[in-house]
Amino acid sequence: MTTAGNTARGRAKAGGAGEQIYNRIAVLRAERGVSRRELAETLGVHYQTVGYLERGEYSPSLHLALRIAQYFEVPVEVVFSTAPFPRIGQE
Fold first, then answer.
1. Which keywords label this protein (predicted)?
2. N or C: which end of the chain has fewer CB within 10 A?
């Protein structure tokens, strides 16, 4: 179950000049006890796509980013950022 743009050929690699997108998907999944496979099935993407996202190897489309935020019921800024998130326990 992949969507257009989520195939190996169409995958947008993260990490280009100024294009790194940071995320808290793994933290949100852990807090809610959701597996990569469960999240992927809900979003209609391959479970490996969730892994690529979590590792910063893939930058999501705006549509996918908004769907992820909606799934976790948080603003998109809670899930994604252009700057690294502070480590837990740091301010």
1. DNA-binding
2. C
Write out pLDDT tens, residues 24-51.
999 999 999 999 999 999 999 999 999 9
How would you label 14-26 residue by residue, b for 16+ Cβ within 10 Å and e otherwise?
beeeeeebebbbe
Determine the residue type at 1.
Answer: M
* Spatial CB neighbours of 51, under 8 Å, sequence gap ≥ 6: 36
Pull the structure tokens for residue 1: 């179950």
Tokens of 42: 């809900």
* Cβ count near 49 (within 10 Å): 25
d(CA 35, CA 40): 9
What gap in Å lies between CA 87 and CA 11, rounded to an integer?
28
CA angle 42, 46, 50 (to 5 degrees): 80
Looking only at the bridges linking them, the beta strands covering 80-81 and 22-23 are: antiparallel
